[in-house]
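Priority: medium. Attachment 1 of 2:
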């Protein structure tokens, strides 16, 4: 069931829509209504919107932080421990540059220039496997 209540806000046709679960703003304003409003009224509306958005973002941030803290307690880890990445094992080289044996590539990430030049020249990557 919806109940519409006229608010004390000074701009036209603003109503608070209340449901059993929550209250939300609904503005039945047309663009022409905004065009007819004074600069001061528009600025006041702008400020009110910023306040509401700021409050909602802060509430949402607190709610999400509470959820993260709860998940951290369930896992038994501190927030700092949860942010640490799992250490990756060092990748062994799978390809070696025949012109400069100190240049190797593990096959991860972007292909190195030296190997790209050989492949563009028509050679196969398999020729450079270690």
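Attachment 2 of 2:
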């Amino acid at each position: 069931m919806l109940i519409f209540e006229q608010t004390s806000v000074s701009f036209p046709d603003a109503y608070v829509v209340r449901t059993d679960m929550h209250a939300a703003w609904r503005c039945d304003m047309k663009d022409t209504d905004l065009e007819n409003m004074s600069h001061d009224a528009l600025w006041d509306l702008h400020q009110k919107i910023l306040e509401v958005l700021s409050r909602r973002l802060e509430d949402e941030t607190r709610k999400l932080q509470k959820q993260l803290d709860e998940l951290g307690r369930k896992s038994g880890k501190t927030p700092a421990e949860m942010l640490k990445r799992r250490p990756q094992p060092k990748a062994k080289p799978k390809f070696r540059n025949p012109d400069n044996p100190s240049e190797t590539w593990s096959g991860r990430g972007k292909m190195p220039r030296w190997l790209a030049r050989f492949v563009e020249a028509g050679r196969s990557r398999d020729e450079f496997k270690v």
